[in-house]
Amino acid sequence: MRKPVVAANWKMNGSLELCEHFSCELVRPEASDVWIFPTALHLRSLVDSFRESDIAIGAQNVWCEPEGAFTGEISARMVKNLGGQLALVGHSERRAMFGDSDTVVARKFKSIADAGLMPVLCVGETLEERESDSAFEAVQRQLNAVEEAWDCPDYSHKVIAYEPVWAIGTGKAATAEIAQEMQGLIRDHVDRRDSGEREELRILYGGSVKASNAAELIVQNDIDGFLVGGASLDVDEFNEICEAVKS
Question: Taking the CB of the first residue and of the last residue of the chain, which one, N or C, has fewer CB atoms within 10 A?
Answer without folding.
Answer: N
